[in-house]
Amino acid sequence: MAVILFQAIHLLLLAYFTIAYTTLSDDGLKAVPGPGDDFNIKTGKLLAPILQPRVPGTPGSIAVQNHFIDFFKTNLPKWNIELQNSTSKTPVSGDKEVPFVNLIITRDPPWTTPGFSGRLNLVAHYDSKLTPHGFIGATDSAAPCAMLMHAARSVDAALTAKWEKMHADGMDLEFEDQQGIQILFLDGEEAFKSWTDTDSIYGARSLAAEMESTAYAAHSTFHNALSSISLFVLLDLLGAKNPTVPSYFKTTHWAYSKMAKLERRLRSMSLFESASKSGASKRDDKPFLPESDKEKTGDRWLGGMIGDDHEPFMERGVDILHIIPSPFPRVWHNREDDGEHLDLPTVADWSKLVTAFVAEWMELEGFMKAGEEAAKLGREVEPRGNQQDTGKSEL
């Protein structure tokens, strides 16, 4: 019965977002800010602090956790921060339990209570591999984490403006808008020795199980936190030049197509930094998301062939939009996956595209100017504070 209810809710959510999806205007797209100097690999306030080894349970991991917490507390105080803790033995820890800490950062409409708000989930893992020694993991996944921080900051003021206007207009808030945003920074994605069902995605496995087992009140719209996820958007291995991201799942191809359309519009409006300029290679104009017409071509849907943090959520019926390139970046799981090997125009473009997708999903048309101005102010605020064993299984 619970499974049937869960599926029914997701069908209703899919129908709602497919039909009631409000497209951002050109002015709305122009108002989507880029990250600017905040993605400088040495001094950038968002990205630079993540570019360090951050193996679970180590000082580097704790430092990055504190970076996330300080950023949201200082710049985005209306977002709720929770930590979900677990421990597990690993193939290299013997009898020692290794700690894993997931960060769950949420902003819901101010009139909602838990169980009544569906949530767009934006997800990346923040841990790095144990080997090779000193591995940074800039694409895997320091840069995706910074992209999510940028997206949250860029839409925060727009969310406030939208919700305040709805309240001022006397709208029936109980029925008008029950959609929030949840950012998951997941720990323990990487294998400690080699990728298996038990040596990988430690944090994701723990969190999915806990979200499923923690029930909301009986009268709630959603019966648990897992069922409130309207879409699970997982970013991974982003930041290398000229990526190709397929559409992996037929069930969420409509959402992939929405993001692909936003990419085409951003390129056509010359708002992408990585797009070729006069005299540059046309290869730089190759779309990140080339499969928006995939349902017409008969190409295979490759979802399930890449192991990643989405798996324990997908197994429980959550809809997944997996934004991971295939083929993987050349630097995957070797020491060159560092800040110096990021293509910063590509990183900036992904940040802008993800932010535009969030703004459109949250129906922020007409409110992004407020977000643009707040993002400029936010950038002025100083926050406190060579081995290729199997990891993710590449196509």
Question: What does this protein look like?
Answer:
With 395 residues, this protein is of the alpha/beta class. It has helices at 2-19, 26-30, 59-75, 138-168, 173-176, 202-213, 253-268, 294-297, 311-314, 344-361, 368-378; strands spanning 80-88, 98-107, 118-125, 179-186, 229-235, 320-323. Helix 7 (253-268) packs across helix 10 (344-361). The relative contact order is 0.20. Residues 1-6 and 379-395 have low confidence and may be disordered.
Give the N-to-C terminal Cα separation. Answer: 36 Å
Question: How much beta, percentage-wise?
Answer: 5-15%
State the shape: globular
Helix-strand topology string: HHHEEEHHEHEHHHEHH
Question: Which key terms come to mind for this protein?
Answer:
globular, 395 residues, 12% strand, alpha/beta, single chain, disordered N terminus, disordered C terminus, 11 helices, six-stranded mixed β-sheet
Strand and helix layout:
Elements: H1 2-19, H2 26-30, H3 59-75, E1 80-88, E2 98-107, E3 118-125, H4 138-168, H5 173-176, E4 179-186, H6 202-213, E5 229-235, H7 253-268, H8 294-297, H9 311-314, E6 320-323, H10 344-361, H11 368-378
Parallel strand pairs: 3-4, 3-5, 5-6
Antiparallel strand pairs: 1-2, 2-4
Helix pairs in contact: 4-10, 4-11, 7-10
Explain briefly what this protein structure is.
The chain is of the alpha/beta class. The chain is 35% helix and 12% strand. α4 (138-168) packs parallel to α10.
